[in-house]
Structure formats: structure tokens, C-alpha cells
Amino acid sequence: MTVALFVALSIMLGPFLIIFFASFEPSSTLRFPPTGFTLDWFRKVMGMSMFQKSLVLSLRIALMASLLSLLLGVPAAYALSRYSFKGKRTIEIIVTSPLIIPGMVAGLALLRFFVLMQVFPIETTLLIGHTAVVLPYAVRSVLSSLVNLPVAIEEAAQSLGAHPLRCFFLVVLPNIKVGIISAFIMAFITSFNNVPISLFLSGPGVNTLPIVMMTYMEYYYNPSIAALSTLLIGLTLAIVLVAQKLLGVSKLV
Amino acid sequence: MKKYFLLIPCLAFLIVFFIIPIVGMFVDSVYQPEKGWVAQKYLDFFRQRLSRTVYFRSLWMSLLVTLVALLIGYPTAMAVVRVKNDSLRSLLMTLLVFPLMTNPVARTFSWLAVLGREGLINNLLLSLRVLDSPVRLLYTRGAVFIGLLQLFLPLMIISLTSALENLPKDVPLAARSLGANSFKLFTKIYLPLTSEGIVTGSTLVFTGCITAYVTPAVLGGSRVLMLSTLLYQKASVTLDWTMATVIAMIMFLSTLGVNFISRAFSTIGVRRWRRASG
Predict the structure, then answer these.
(1) H/E element holding A53?
(2) pTM for the full model?
(3) ipTM, 2 decimals?
(4) B37 pairs with which residues across the strands?
(5) What residue segments make up the domains of chain A, in order of their start?
(6) Class level of CATH domain B47-276
(7) Chain B interface mutation, best of A74, A233, A237, A244, highest count of B Cβ atoms under 10 Å
(8) Which of B110, B127, B229, B259 would best serve as a mutation to test chain A binding (most A beta carbons within 10 A)?
(9) What's the DSSP call for residue B75?
(10) What is the pLDDT of residues A37-81, one digit of tens each?
(11) Hey, which CATH number is domain A50-218, 3.20.20.70, 3.40.50.10810, 1.10.3720.10, 3.30.540.10?
(12) Which residues in chain A are contacts of B158 at CB distance < 8 A?
């Protein structure tokens, strides 16, 4: 069992260590073990405007898609947790459909749809696609917090005269804070890492970071992507560790 | 009325911007107003040798990754569950979750430093004098396999860990005290009681493999085409949207089929165990 654990961890995490060391390689080919030590690739990759531009776009889309998914998802999660109604099963299927439908399928379908419509600018279509894909994560996290929150608290607030809206903002919302934060983190990371939707919906001059990285890799085989990967992996590790400290790891899966 | 009012924004958004485009694409792949029924395009997909090969390669690869993930994942999950120290166990869980959260391009790119011409494996084998000159490891089926395994192993381990955590602690102890050996303990207690976790994990891994794009694109390229890379090639390079649509629908239907089969399996497993345990 310990052997299996070791094998699993080295398959999953080993490449990360290797790419970390490979990003310090001084020559212009990707190589492991590295032949020396330099930070040039980090400087270079951070100075390239194509990466800067796409990083800003990726962050902007991820931020807006996460906020939009919370805006749409929190009321829906509240209704799903507090009321029973006809067609609940159908509604749940619709809400979770972005988890069931493969990203490549959704990407192609959205591309066809938006090409036919021809009304939205590229960035808007990207935002719409990303929001749809992250919505189930937002609903799920918030829903599980709401289910664990006793209805009696709300009933107490309302029987003491609080308006339902006032009750929601002053009583419910503070109590599901953890669910909302983890929903936001999950949605943000999912959008930031998304490839299939962006692959189809990106357009000239409007490309998210993962797409630019993939295009760049087709033409250049130097350690700059290694440096960028190291930065992204480090950033993710930091987010996961902080989230785990704040929320507990179970909240994120 | 209030309850529907809260749901409307979310549902309307998903129906307009998600369900309708997908249903529209499906309808378009079987019926077009000016041409009538066009379902024979699905037959064309299986008649063409390339697409047929790619389809069965994808299925076979997904099956292989699922089986190996299960073989490595099960003992790993058992090891994780057995860790008594709480902080060590949460560290392990974090390490297991973390690969799922990293950028798939960065994660896949890592393999280029392992499998590339001047990567770890070639340099190691050259320095040990096993090889005289570097061999091509990238753009092979093995490269796609190991990339997919890295990608989906965490999902398998997490599914199995939660299944093992739900297993009542006293059942294996009871079986032991009644004289079950390790083999019997595993086949009669662990396997049936964690069958749902096994089915869930396998389904996630299998459907994930069929639909993954970045890994086959970076590690397989056009030498080892998979369903998803063929789809993208048709849609963006040859601009054959009809074929791309057919591939997308076949991909989707395959994942639905797998989900369906696995649901049937897990209910059979549970029923059989209930019957056996009286």
C-alpha cells in the first residue's frame, strides 16, 4: 500500500518537480536535468506581451464568470434547498448539465450558436460560456451550505418581524459565507483553467492564457513555458494551501 | 411563485446559452431543413477508417487508463485512509486535490521535460548506456497514456477514499475474527462494500479520458489522434463542421452510455451484496 501511495504521488506530482527544475535551464531547449541555473526564462516570459495580455483576459473572465455564477446560482440554490416543487428533478438536471456535457461538445455547440447569432463580441461569448460551465460548481457549494443551515434560524428571524430579504442578507448570508467563498474559489479556478470552451470561443486578439500557451508550445520548444508553468503551479499550490487552511480540503472537492 | 422567481435567472441563462445550443447542434446533426434527414453522416463516421480507428483507440485508451488508475488508486486510497495522524492525512488529501486544480496546460507540459528528447527518461537511459541515441517518447500512445493517468488518478483516489471512509470499521474486524484471510477479506468485504466508489471513480476516469483535449493534443499530437483532437481538427483546421458535430455527438453519447452502464452496475453490486448478507 505504501508502495502504491508512492507510485501514485510520483506519477501525479513528479512531473511538477521536474518542470520546476527544468525552468532554470540556461540553454534554449527544454532539458532535464538542467545544465545550469538562470532566472532568464522567468524574466522573459513575464515580459512578453502576449502572455501579459492573455493573463489579464483570463483573470478578468474568471473573476466576472465567478461573480455572475454566484449572482445566478445563490438564489437558485436557495430555492432548491428551501422549497419543494414540481419538476425539481428536471431543474436539477438543467443546473448540473454543464458537468455532464463534455467541454469539447459544449465548446463546439456554443461556437455554432454564437456564429449564427453574430451579436456578441468575442469577450462576451467567452464570459457566457465560462459562466455556464462554472455555474454548477457555484450552485453545488452554496447548496451544501444551505442544506446544513437549519431552517429554524430563518423562521425565528422572520417570526420576529424581519422581512425575507432582510433575513436573507443578515441571517442566511453570513451563515453560508464558507460555502460562498469555496464556490467562488472553485468557479474561479475552473474558469481560469478552462481549455475546451476557450478553444472554440477565443478569437483574433482575444485568447485566454491556456490557449496562448498551447499555441506557443506548437512553435517553440524552450523553457519559457516551463517557467510559466512553474509560476502557475506555484500559484495554484498557494491557493489550495490557503483554501485548505481556511475552509478545510473537503469543501473544495 | 416566489420560489420560481428565484430560479428563473439561473434556468433561463442555462437554457438559452447552454441547452438550446446543444440541442440545436444535435438536431442539426440528424435533420437539416434543406437536406432532410442526414443521419447517414453517423454511418460515414464509422465507415471511414481514420475516424473508426480514432474512436476505438479512444475507447481502448480510456479503458486502459481506468483499469491502471483503479489498480494504483485502490491501495493508495487504503493507505491514505489508514493514516492515523490527522494533519498528515489532510496534507496527503491536499496533495491529491492539488493536481486537479492546476492548469491543465502547465500540468501536461511537465511531461515534455520527462519524455522529451533531452528529458529525464532519455537522459537517464543515455547515461546508463541503455541507449546510444535518444528515442522518441513524445507523440506516442504511451505518452498519452501516462498523461491521462496523471490527470485522472486523483479523481479515482478521491472517489475510493470516500468509499473506504464510509466503510464501517467493525466489519473488517468482525470478518477477521471469524477467520477470513486477507484475500477473502478483500474480495468478500472490501470490494463489495466499496463497489459504488469503484464504479463512480471508474466512470469519472473513463468519461474524462474520452473527452480530455489538452493531454492528447500536447502529448499525442496528430500522430496519436484521439476523439477530441480529431474533433478539433475537423472543426478548426479542415472546417468540416458537419463531421465535427457528428464526432461531438458520438463523444457525448459515449459518455452517456458509460454513465448508464455504470449506474446499472452499481445497483447490481449493491443488490447482490444485500442478498449475500441476508
Answers:
(1) helix A49-82
(2) 0.91
(3) 0.91
(4) B31
(5) 1-38+220-247, 50-218
(6) mainly alpha
(7) A233
(8) B110
(9) H
(10) 888 888 888 888 889 999 999 999 999 999 999 999 999 999 999
(11) 1.10.3720.10
(12) 253
